[in-house]
Design goal:
Elements lengths: L2 E4 L5 H12 L3 E6 L3 H13 L4 E5 L8 H16 L4 E6 L14 H22 L3 E10 L12 H21 L5 E7 L12 H9 L9 H12 L10 E4 L6
Parallel strand pairs: 1-2, 1-4, 2-3, 4-5, 5-6, 6-7
Helix pairs in contact: 1-2, 1-7, 4-5
Amino acid sequence: MKVILVTGGSSGIGASTAVQCAARGMGVVLTYHNHATAAQDVVLNIEAAGGTAAALRLDVSNIATFPAFKKTLEVLLQKTWGRNSVDVLVNNAGFGLFNPIETVTENEFDRLFNVHLKGPFFLTQALLPLLAAGGHIINVTSATTRVATVGVAPYAAFKGGLEVLTRYMAKEFGARRIRANSVSPGAIRTGLGGGLNDEFEALLASQTALGRVGEPDDVGQVIANLISDENGWINAQSIEVAGGYNI
């Protein structure tokens, strides 16, 4: 049985990824920051369907907590699955902020940087000893790295950095047969950045070839499939999952 760790797994794309992977027979560890009840609901849903899952608290923006998180994860892995490694790390945790460049504060900039680039970098570094040979790292980025969208410059810039980092991970971890890919969602109906109102959703749908915004499962299913052995030769790629957004 593969075991997957999904950061930001209490809602949205992370929750969908957790459920989709569990449905394919994987053990799931999902992390949350503030929403413990929502995370536990995801765990209960997985267990009700016959899967195995657990939730751990993690602040991706605070790298000083990573050594303690690693130890907690080691104990959980041994207790739940009788092993000391994970097969897949999905760096998904994030939040949105809509501000034009001229009004972004240093604090807002730093918060976005810590969660979307610095955090994934050092969390991956911290968990490398627990990542099994032949494993897989998936970094969730964004279609805003390709399509400039007013108001999300820092977010998109750091997601772009994560996309570049993905290729370096594939290069440096290849000796252990660890793959690294990024998945780049377009407009998805989640609570990120406050969610979508009807007007904004209609605008995004009109800019998407398939005529709608995406749902979390549109992305979660892709991540779950990408993890499979059948896709084992896909490496160092950025896969946009956006229904043909702004093409």
